[in-house]
Amino acid sequence: MLRFLIRRLIGVAAILLIVSGITFYLFFAASGADDVVRLSCGRSCTPEMREVVRQNLGLDKPLLEQYWIFLSGIFMGRKIGDLQCDSPCLGYSFANNENVFDKIVDRFPVTISLAIGAVVLFLVLGIGMGVVAALNRGKAVDKVTTGVALLSGSAPIYVLGPIFIYVFVQQLGWLDRPTDPPSFTGDPGGWATALILPWVCLMTIHMALYCRLTRSTMVDVLSEDYVRTLRAKGLSGRSVYIKHAFRGALSPIITVLGVDIGVLLSGTIITESTFSLHGLGNLAVTAVVDSDLPMMMGVVLIAATFTMLANLAVDMAYAVIDPRVRLS
Fold first, then answer.
1. Which of 32, 58, 85 represents a domain boundary (last residue)?
2. Final residue in a domain of this structure, among 85, 115, 134
3. pTM of this structure
4. Total structural domains in the chain?
5. CA 17 – CA 72 distance, rounded (Å)
């Protein structure tokens, strides 16, 4: 198991290195040193000021040296002009001169709160509905469950969000308008109340996929010879369904879950925009609008890191479910 984990960690590190190099080239080298200086300095800069900015950003150095300074700064920190950027250093924002990593850390609690609640809800409801549908294949319960899942997955978040706000906030008055949640440790009730509508919207959309996926994989597994053999030997239905059939159906569910978690932790742009939440998705949109290259690059690298860590978690889950994976 340890060797399997080490191999996967080396692969993750290699991919992140490649992603950082491509991202650095696209955002800085491909943009051109003059464009980067203009974005950082502003329109009122004199030629002398632009030259100072160029030197402070290290744009007067060869491209590979610039990338090495950026990469080493992530682990050891670096000096940018008169500012000391401590590790992990992703640079300073062109728009407001804020530390990029500190800004991302400041926005991350909103995004992770949104992701955790949504994942718990759509996993419990989606997988539960899929198992019920599979165990009642062809019956009315199966048809109703799959119909509800199909209907719930048909509406995009930018349609569901305003509808939920109109119904539950403006008409019924059951909830306040969604806003950035307070700290979970300080006010758990307020934290959950502030995020309940975004959670329900994400759950409604994602549970459809998990319901259909769980149902199809469970139906396939229940038709396998080893399942029929277990039933013929007298094992109880609960033992066969939960311990054997459901475990055999987990692999595709875990694969999709890893991708979804990576996307949610990277910042759900449409969801955060719909409910006016200030997470990583909102930060990415603001950075694009402001042409804030360091902030855009920081968000991209953090998103890539979360995606790779989610894939690593999927690989580890595979190894737990199926020991043969450890030998691959």
1. 85
2. 85
3. 0.79
4. 2
5. 12
